[in-house]
Amino acid sequence: MSTTTSAPPPARTERAERTRHRILDAAGHCFAASGFAKTTVEQIALQAAVSKALVYHHFRGKEQILEAVLERTLDDWDEATRTANWPEGKSVLQGLAEMHRATLEYARDNPLLRALFQNDPLVLLDMRRSAAVRRSLEEFRAQLVEAIRAGVESGELREDLDVEGSAEVVRMLNLSFIERLFEPEWIDASDERLIGASLDVLFRGLAREER
Q1: Which of 74, 180, 175 is nearest to 118 (CA)?
Q2: Does residue 92 contact residue 154 with C-beta atoms inside 8 Å?
Q3: What is the phi/psi pair of residue 183, to 5°?
Q4: Which CATH architecture has domain 68-206?
Q5: Contact 127, 67 (CB under 8 A)
Q6: Which one of 112, 147, 166, 201 is least enclosed by Cβ atoms within 10 Å?
Q7: pLDDT, tens only, 111-162
Q8: In 3-state terms, what secondary structure has residue 207?
Q9: What string of DSSP letters covers 95-114?
Q10: pTM of the model as a whole
């Protein structure tokens, strides 16, 4: 005799999803306030107004919660700095400049990212191997390749550019500025003059020379 397993009622699924989001909101708040290492599952449950058992029902532990929080943060970051679908008429270099500044602005103003960089650098280093981080970096790289290739095809950028290599250079520049934002001992990456100078140097290498 065969049996079939019915899907959970929509109301139950929606309720579970709302609970999961509440836990992630609470975890993000706790990680930003105290850092990952000092935050406990009990604190997350208290902040979310749920039981510790319910937290473990949705997540295996604190590491998986951080992975989910980081994935959601990266999705928001990507949405805020997306280079695709630029308005018609906007130059590729203008779009890259806006992307660079928007990325730095998001990182600078996000308390969770600041806490992870400053309070839990070893945890963040380990999380860089996570699937969410790898996916985000690859999507960022793909956007840059698409933008630079479009610039070459339109004649705005040099026709002899190594598109893949140029995209990596842009990504390296952006990530270097983000790291310096949270470790400003030698370089103030929030200095607009420094940001403008870096873009000027970069774009002089990318732009097609006027004849």
Answers
A1: 180
A2: yes
A3: -135, 70
A4: Orthogonal Bundle (1.10)
A5: yes
A6: 201
A7: 888 888 877 777 776 666 777 788 888 888 998 999 999 999 999 999 999 9
A8: strand
A9: HHHHHHHHHHHHHHH-HHHH
A10: 0.79
Q: Show Cβ contacts of residue 61 under 8 Å, excluding neighbours closer than 6 positions.
A: 41
Residue pair 104/189 in contact by the 8 Å Cβ criterion: yes
pLDDT digits (tens, 9 = 90+) for 58-72: 999 998 999 899 888
Nearest to 70 by CA among 109, 24, 33: 24
Average pLDDT over residues 94-106: 89
Distance from C-alpha of 10 to C-alpha of 13, rounded to nearest angstrom: 5
pLDDT, tens digit (0-9, with 9 covering 90-100), for 135-146 = 888 888 998 999
Could you please state the CATH topology (level 3) that the domain comprising 8-59 is classified under. Answer: Arc Repressor Mutant, subunit A (1.10.10)
User: What phi and psi values does residue 157 have, to the nearest 5 degrees?
Assistant: -105, 160
In 91-180, at which residue ranges do the beta strands (DSSP E only) sit? none
| Phi (first) and psi of residue 207, to 5 degrees | -70, 145
pLDDT per residue over 24-54, tens digit each? 999 999 999 988 989 999 999 999 999 999 9
- Inter-CA distances, 96 with 4, 10, 105, 114, 174, Å: 53, 42, 14, 24, 10
